[in-house]
């Protein structure tokens, strides 16, 4: 027998199944506690369509999964990436090289001006304390 096709929300399905098993919860119980029908529950594993926010939040709320994490697992929102602004600009395909250069120089000037302002505030605070 062939392997089942993985759906868009397969990662969420895995997390739900892990938590459901840990709580010894049947799919009938899952349907009752989430208010979702069995077709929706069974489709989470293999559906090519993204589940609605209502469906994702029903699972998240039942199992204590943060909603934003559940949305990410379900493929509703892209995964959060820890990327600084310079990397985001440099790796962007939206901006031309000239635009990237300008944006990066604006950021550099802003950071320098902020650092100077912080120094001034710090110096003024020290002088006031004397």
TrEMBL record:
SUPFAM superfamilies assigned: lambda repressor-like DNA-binding domains
UniProt name for this protein: HTH cro/C1-type domain-containing protein
InterPro entries (alphabetical): Cro/C1-type_HTH, Lambda_DNA-bd_dom_sf
Source organism per UniProt: Winogradskya humida
Gene3D superfamilies in alphabetical order: lambda repressor-like DNA-binding domains
Matching CDD domains: HTH_XRE
Span of domain HTH cro/C1-type: 16-70
């Amino acid at each position: 027998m062939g392997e089942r096709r993985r759906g868009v929300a397969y990662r969420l399905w895995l997390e739900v199944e892990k938590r459901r098993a840990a709580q010894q919860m049947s799919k009938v119980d899952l349907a009752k506690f989430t208010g979702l029908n069995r077709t929706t529950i069974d489709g989470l594993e293999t559906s090519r369509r993204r589940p609605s926010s209502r469906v994702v939040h029903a699972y998240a709320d039942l199992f204590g999964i943060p909603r934003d994490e559940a949305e990410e697992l379900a493929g509703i929102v892209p995964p959060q990436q820890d990327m600084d602004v310079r990397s985001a600009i440099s790796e962007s395909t939206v901006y031309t090289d000239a635009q990237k250069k300008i944006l990066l120089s604006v950021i550099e000037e802003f950071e320098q001006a902020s650092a100077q302002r912080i120094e001034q505030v710090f110096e003024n605070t020290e002088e006031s304390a004397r």
